[in-house]
Specification:
Elements: H1 19-23, H2 35-40, E1 47-50, E2 56-58, H3 66-74, E3 78-81, E4 89-91, E5 96-97
Antiparallel strand pairs: 1-2, 1-3, 3-4, 4-5
The chain binds zinc ion (ZN) (3 copies).
Length: 98
Amino acid sequence: MTPPPMHRRADAGARHRCSHGAAARQVEPLSTGCLPCRQQGEGWVELWLCLSCGWVACCDNSPNQHAKAHYQETDHPVAARLPDGAHRRWCYVHDRAV
Ligand SMILES: [Zn+2]
Ligand SMILES: [Zn+2]
Ligand SMILES: [Zn+2]
């Protein structure tokens, strides 16, 4: 009877590092506002830009949280706050700023 292989601990520190932020690039925003909110006639607090595809959506402090919804639909990991996205980026996978 063969014991199951031990899980390697080499990855133990990896979750503390986030490679998503480094992999993200600056992309052109697809819109100047959160399109779902505009369609519903609703407002937002801040806008976040998906650095995978350029989707613009409202932040987690907004009533509809479309940026988080976009991550849950697409698995695109990193968003940047508009308009100064270079200064503030958020990794949804690691749930922290990167
Ligand atoms: Zn990450
Ligand atoms: Zn929205
Ligand atoms: Zn995206």
